[in-house]
Amino acid sequence: MRKVFKRHAIMDSSLFILEEMYAKLRLVQKEEESHLKSNYNCVELFGFLVSQITSEVFFIDWERPRGVIVSRSDDSTFNPVTIWRTYIVANEWNELQTYRRISCFFQLFVVCVLLKVNAVIEPGFRTTAPAASAVDSVITFLVERCFWDQIRNFVDLCSISNISVLGLQNHLYGFYLHGRSVHGYADCDIKEMNDKLQREKACFCFRGLEPNSEVQSFTVYLSDRFRLQYDRISRLITNGLDLKECFTFVDGRKLKLLILLDYSEQAFTKLFFFGNEFTLFTFEMSLFCYVEYLSRNVVLAAAVTAFVVMIVKKLREKGGIKNLTRTSLVDARFLL
């Protein structure tokens, strides 16, 4: 509460009157603070889900026809490029949409065990030992580098399949994953594929967009003119019209005008749950604390949190499949 003084001036005299007024500001009570934080986190999660399921994905197949089909008549056509490589990449993209770095259910189980069995009240507990961070770094390295790394595996799949991915987080901003094969084509037998991989292993060729570069992940800033052409081509593809007049060759020099290098190689994961772990973790943590504060029951809080996490994941899966089908024109029956 603070005092505010208002001055009144009388025109026909030099008398000034000071009127004392009070401006009242109601502070949030301690009991209401947890409710407000929980509501804010719910609103943040809702906006996050909307942005996730409204993003746009476009697969660019660089494969060209190899060979000509000769018929009995004089007409001859090029051997069409198969669509199966695009279906495989789209299916992997769909699986990565809800892939996470951590396991929420395992964390809830560990929290319940610790709070129920090994919970010890230690006021003023503090530690500065670097052992915890060192162990965490070692575990992260072993899990992501030595055992599996789904993000890098997807980048390798795009390079082998000769398919690039353009993912737009909003209307004019997104990410470009360069997957154009350095060998020129991807449809080959197993011997040719092994020879290609051995050449890459020996550093005879590089997968990056620029010469002698391994950078394949880029941040994209589109212009309004480029966006209009993108929407025009999308409408033509949706309507099933002839696209020969729309096709053009885009080389690296033109792409450099639209993209910025991203040396993290994982910026495009912002389109997935994987790149938004902090948002999801804070929501789950606040929900667990809120339910535990109301019920005073750790097991109930963990059960409610796990149930909400399952619902959020299902909504993301269903919305992601519909959005992927709409923007990439991949039939939902191929998204396993």
From TrEMBL:
One of its GO terms (biological process) is cilium assembly. It comes from the Eukaryota. GO terms for cellular component: MKS complex. The chain crosses the membrane at residues 293-312. The keyword Transmembrane helix applies. Keywords: Membrane, Transmembrane, Transmembrane helix. InterPro entries: Meckelin. The keyword Membrane applies. PANTHER family: MECKELIN (PTHR21274). This is Meckelin.
